[in-house]
Amino acid sequence: MPRSIAIDGPAGAGKSTIAKKVSQKLGFIYLDTGAMYRTVALKAIKTGIDTKNHQELANMMDKLDISISHENNLQKIFLDGEDVSEAIRAPQVSVGASNVAVFPEVRLKMVDLQRKIASGIDVVMDGRDIGSYVLPAAELKIFLTASVDERARRRYEELVQKGQPANLEAVRDDIIFRDKNDSSRALAPLVKAADAIEIDSTILTIDEVVEKILYFYKNYANITRE
Predict the structure, then answer these.
(1) pLDDT in tens, 34-48
(2) Binding-site residues for ATP, please?
(3) What pTM value is reported for the model?
(4) What homologous superfamily is domain 4-219 in, according to CATH?
């Protein structure tokens, strides 16, 4: 039976980086669910649809073509056959992703795809609602967080390293907005699952967080081992 680890938490907590490293250590596939919502937002932006327009987004979902591939544990995401793995990281797409994620039609389609992928392979999946909604039976659930200022600093440095225009105060405001948006949506909001283990990464290195998760997986995961 496929094994799964769910890593949830707010924007900028380091979920993707941590999940990638954990998946590599365990030989699992890493699935970046946030990239899927970013792709929906990118589609809306490309077609001139307001990412807050419920009806137009609902209509768009019927014509949405998203596919995912993995090469050497690197996820690539395609929109209408085009590799948009880099394009979806633009700041305006980040805000749009948080907007579109509140609508049931978007979430239900993405969750269905996520569950289908997880049903056939060992996965480490990160997002906002993996342990609480997408994979409620995941063998290990982690809720990864960090202070707002630290999350803003990390995201700002990430954008700078990629050569993208960035303003620390604007990045901080964006994170605060996304926290509120993600936590207050009606369907599957950002919430710590009752059986999740919380890790505050504010003063921890990436490797320290990874080691903690591997320790918890080895010792506390709800899994029968030979």
Answers:
(1) 899 999 999 999 999
(2) 9-17
(3) 0.83
(4) P-loop containing nucleotide triphosphate hydrolases (3.40.50.300)
